[in-house]
Amino acid sequence: MQFPYRLTAKGKYLLKNVRLETGFEYENEEVTGTKTDLFSIEIEDGKIKTVKPNEPAADAIDVKGFLMLPAFRDMHIHLDKTLYGLPWQALSPKRRTVKDMIAYEQKIIPELLKTSVGRAGQLISLLQHYGTHFARTHFNIDPTSGLQSLEHLELALEHKKDSFKAELVAFPQHGVYYTESAPLMKEAAQLKSVGYIGGLDPFSIDGSIEKVMDFTVQLALDHHKGIDIHLHEAGESGIKTINYLIDKAIENPQLQGKIFVSHAFALAHLSPKETEKVAERLAAGKVGIASSVPFKGAVMPIPTLKKYGVKVLIGNDNVQDYWSTFGSGNMLQKANLIAELYGYATEFALSRALQFATQSILPLDDLGKQQWPKAGDEASIVLTSASCSAEAVSRMSEIEALMNDGNLFWRN
Fold first, then answer.
1. CDD domains in the record, alphabetically (predicted)?
2. Is the pLDDT of residue 115 over 80?
3. Domain 73-249+317-342 CATH (choose: 3.40.50.280, 3.20.20.140, 3.50.50.60, 3.40.640.10)
4. CATH class of 5-70+355-411
């Protein structure tokens, strides 16, 4: 897919006929609908400068009453490893384990690197088609690709710099010690563009929770990075790894709020009491969870995590690649899936589910008070024909325009 929007405005300009949510409608203290009104919004220097009652300014860009929502953020994806843009391939039944996939990657990476810049760009365009302007993307660090996956990803991101942003996670997909990836991880950790140190199933891949996690934590401390670990292990080793990371966060306050466990499937196999205990510890250590939702029948305890104040991030993970054939790239679809999985079917609950696409930014607070947008907010928004957040989530409404840092792109 080519970039589906054209640049309409940048710098300083005014929007008129912008539909914003203003509050909830109630019947017997139950939320039954969402109120909206039209506004004029001034954009300047990548920020929202003013939000005012609608005015018929001749020089303003007319957005025709489309609903304005925060632009979407995909917080777990692999932009460097997509098959999107290549001929269709379904998932192979021959590769059943992570180690099977490592062996497969070692064979195919050299050929895939030849087209990875273009394919990453196409995948970013797909995300943008669905209203995403920001991603946390993992990139392979392994002896087969060295730092080439990072170099190619940075080229793809440079081509999109006006319309898309990303934070980068150095991901040892082939293990830290299972292959000779530790020296490469040390090299990547020194780079300014890398924001997070990644990891992969330390017990099942590298044979040691402590050795791998100590290496990862020290690397993050030495270079002032965050941590984002892939943890597919669903048994005792999975819980031990989560608790080990919580302990490290408590020991090192500078890492609190900067450690995330991606997938964390072990949490889906606990009793309610065990889940609450771990959720309480995650919140105490300010350790977050990043989930792709759903995944191979594992239903994550998102309501319990949210109840205890654990930061929960959502992403697409694999979009039509050799790990999974189901990723769509659509963050509204992720919010919709979460709403369906956990029964968020009312106007109020659906409006709250939007947070899983925007990563916690909501137009209205729980009491129905308008809290977004405000002067000074980042000018990164989408425009949609939906009447309100609840409808946008339920119907996965089409995106008409995308704004990133004040640069407005309208659908062709």
1. Bact_CD
2. yes
3. 3.20.20.140
4. mainly beta
| Strands 165-171, 72-77: pairing kind | unpaired
Helices 209-223 and 236-251 meet at what angle, rounded to 10? Answer: 30
Strand (E) or helix (H) holding 203: helix 202-206
Condensed to tens digits (0 to 9), the pLDDT of residues 120-136 reads 999 999 999 999 999 99
Q: Model confidence at 298, in pLDDT bands (50, 70, 90)?
A: confident
Amino acid identity of residue 12, one-letter, is: K
Supply the DSSP string of 42-100, one letter for each residue. EEETTEEEEEEE----TTSEE-TTPEEEEPEEEEEE-TTS--BTB---PPPTT--SHHH
Please list the residues that pair with 288 across neighbouring strands.
Answer: 260
**Cα separation values, 300 from 285, 293, 306, Å:** 20, 8, 11
Residue 3, pLDDT above cutoff 90: no
40 three-class SS: strand
The confidence score (pLDDT) of residue 306 equals 96
Domain boundaries, the chain: 5-70+355-411, 73-249+317-342
Q: Walk across the sheet containing 259-263 and list its strands.
A: 72-77, 132-140, 165-171, 194-200, 226-231, 259-263, 287-291, 312-314
